[in-house]
Amino acid sequence: MLLPFYQQELLEAGCDEAGRGCLAGPVFAAAVILPPDFHHPLLNDSKQLAEKERNKLRKEIEEMAIAFAVAAVDHQEIDKINILNASFLAMHRALDQLKQQPDFIIIDGNRFKPYQNTKHQCIVKGDGKYFSIAAASILAKTYRDEYMENLHQQFPHYDWKQNKGYPTVKHREAVFSYGLSPYHRKTFRITNPQLSIFNSLPYESTTTHQ
């Protein structure tokens, strides 16, 4: 059972990102402020839910939230400032767009660049602990998935409709066959899919950033 808030004295927003481990496309982030009485029996970490469930929850979150916003940092910016800083920037952009500013922020993960003078708390695996972070993870992932599915129409051989830019074997094979698209992150290392040692590694282990 997820918890409604980390603290109850200040207006709280949850933040999360999607797409850090991808080879192509932007990193997306969302910020969500939920009402005091919010509860949802199905809301959880986006990675624990099926695509159909995530899309249904996205509509419900947007209808019930006090405020929500989604923002992105594109592949070119990622190459310039690195993926960690790009993730922080995407979260800051989402927070900038909230129609009501929070007094406290909870973030999924263990690192965050302070936002203005707002108090914050990093929470490891927070998307599986707090409703607002879980809601942010749903929005960030569904908006990013939609973006990559649209890009797939221009570059179908990379299979972005299925892999959303993550370094699956099929995606890496396509890069070795067709080269990089205009949307690939040039600072990320793309391993040869024929090297079996890399095929058993998690996605994030196949990428590096400076």
TrEMBL record:
Keywords carried by this UniProt record: Cytoplasm, Endonuclease, Hydrolase, Manganese, Metal-binding, Nuclease
Lineage, uppermost ranks: Bacteria, Pseudomonadati, Bacteroidota, Sphingobacteriia, Sphingobacteriales
Name of the protein: Ribonuclease HII
Cell location: Cytoplasm
InterPro entries (UniProt xref): RNase_HII, RNase_HII/HIII, RNase_HII/HIII_dom, RNaseH-like_sf, RNaseH_sf
PROSITE patterns in alphabetical order: RNASE_H_2
Chain's gene name: rnhB
Cofactor(s) this protein requires: Mg(2+); Mn(2+)
UniProt domain RNase H type-2: residue ranges: 10-200
Gene Ontology molecular function: manganese ion binding; RNA binding; RNA-DNA hybrid ribonuclease activity
Membership in a protein family: Belongs to the RNase HII family.
Protein role: Endonuclease that specifically degrades the RNA of RNA-DNA hybrids.
Organism per entry: Pedobacter aquae
Leading EC class: hydrolase
Gene Ontology BP annotations: DNA replication, removal of RNA primer; mismatch repair
EC number: 3.1.26.4
GO CC annotation, single: ribonuclease H2 complex
Catalyzed reactions: Endonucleolytic cleavage to 5'-phosphomonoester
Cofactor notes: Manganese or magnesium. Binds 1 divalent metal ion per monomer in the absence of substrate. May bind a second metal ion after substrate binding.
Main location: cytoplasm
